[in-house]
Amino acid sequence: MTAQPRETFEARLRAIGETRYHDKHPFHSMLHGGQCTMTQVRAWVVNRYYYQSRIPMKDAAFLSRCTDPDLRRAWRSRIEDHDGGVAEGGGIRRWLKLAEAVGLDPVYVASTEGVLPATRFAVDAYVAFVREKPMLEAVAASLTELFAPKIHSQRIAGLLEHYAFADDAALSYFRTRLNEAPKDVAFGLAYVLDHADTLEKQDAAAAALTFKTDVLWSQLDALHSAYVTPARIPPGGWDGETGVRESAQYQGAAQ
Ligand SMILES: O=C(O)c1cc(C(=O)O)c2c(n1)C(=O)C(=O)c1cc(C(=O)O)[nH]c1-2
């Protein structure tokens, strides 16, 4: 079957974000609107660390299958963005700065103990998807980043306005992503538009992007179910206390 015209296919991909991206999730409205308690903010930081920690692993899985040196060269900066160098670190270290700012022990957060089972399943499914699926689908799955700069900007503004822990140092992860993501997404989008040259491949790429929106949405469903009243923390989930520093300034309700 004939492929959709490039513009129609791009609009189709963007429409997936319009309807399914996790900026529409109620947990994000609470977080960005200042309605989260500090326990809920900490639960988000603990769980989202797992996603951060697995992103460079999924990019390494991608690179391990990649036979084209040009594609490898373009892709490898994603790992550098998250891991950085020994001295300065990268996105993972910046996420742990956020963990400290909200009163969590970064060693506890980095241990990934307390990560909700559903978060683990969702994130591990993303890594497995990138390891196993055709390269086109693996790239297409990363295109949720098309929609990430908007949510990162909303998050910076919302956290600064509503929470006492938030300052430029605590939020440096998100500011840095605003600079890093556009180059990744421009490359990824061009790759998908160029390589999805049949309707079947376009359908597969759209399905991969939809799958990825599910990966993101499921993580927030897990948080909402565990930590928003009527809270139901599953066995193994963070208990709201472990890893909270005694000196944590920001106890109690959102501030
Ligand atoms: O805060 C967010 O909502 C958000 C979403 C996404 C995304 O859409 O997958 C990423 C990020 N942040 C992010 O910081 C990041 O480094 C990242 C990498 C990837 C990816 O799939 O390779 N997505 C995302």
From TrEMBL:
GO terms for molecular function: pyrroloquinoline-quinone synthase activity. Pathway: Cofactor biosynthesis; pyrroloquinoline quinone biosynthesis. GO terms for biological process: pyrroloquinoline quinone biosynthetic process. Its EC number is 1.3.3.11. InterPro entries: Haem_Oase-like_multi-hlx, PqqC, PqqC-like, Thiaminase-2/PQQC. The keyword Oxidoreductase applies. The keyword Oxidoreductase applies. It comes from the Bacteria. Residues 11-221 form the Thiaminase-2/PQQC domain. It catalyses: 6-(2-amino-2-carboxyethyl)-7,8-dioxo-1,2,3,4,7,8-hexahydroquinoline-2,4-dicarboxylate + 3 O2 = pyrroloquinoline quinone + 2 H2O2 + 2 H2O + H(+). SUPFAM superfamilies: Heme oxygenase-like. Keywords: Oxidoreductase, PQQ biosynthesis. Ring cyclization and eight-electron oxidation of 3a-(2-amino-2-carboxyethyl)-4,5-dioxo-4,5,6,7,8,9-hexahydroquinoline-7,9-dicarboxylic-acid to PQQ. HAMAP family: PQQ_syn_PqqC. This is Pyrroloquinoline-quinone synthase. The lineage of its organism: Bacteria, Pseudomonadati, Pseudomonadota, Alphaproteobacteria, Hyphomicrobiales. The gene is pqqC.
